[in-house]
Design brief:
signaling receptor activity, about 160 residues, about 0% strand, about 70% helix, single chain, globular, membrane
Amino acid sequence: LKLDYLGIILNVSATCLTSSWFGFKHDCHVATTYISLTLGLSVIIVFLFLKPGADGASAAVWRSLVIADLMATEYTPLIHAYILRGAEALEYFPWRAAAKMVSVDIIGVLFYITRFPESRFPDTFDIWISSGAGHQIFHASVIIGRVIYLRGLRELT
């Protein structure tokens, strides 16, 4: 379970890092600042998630909100670039792909939090693991979201 958390944090952090890297490729100091902040925040979250209180169904909503907050930090550099250089600065960010990815992620998180469909149909959708189909749908949505994002990054290069 702890490795699951680590994987999620690494996925989200990598998205934030690449957004800052591409978005501020002409301003290395700003990119380095955002990358450092993302790495620092990610390390803090890893240590928070290693605590025993972060486990279990009772902490699922809290964990999801912490991850959502980390995901939201991806948009801070975008807003910063817009304030500094206007709309033309956004062409360096994979913001369209990121918006699509986050939409897919949110759908997955909703399945995870509501534990649907296993909450309505117990033992019917447990395919690979016994933790339920909502969790499996969440993981599938993360993979789909990252593929969408990677395709967006390829369009920038």
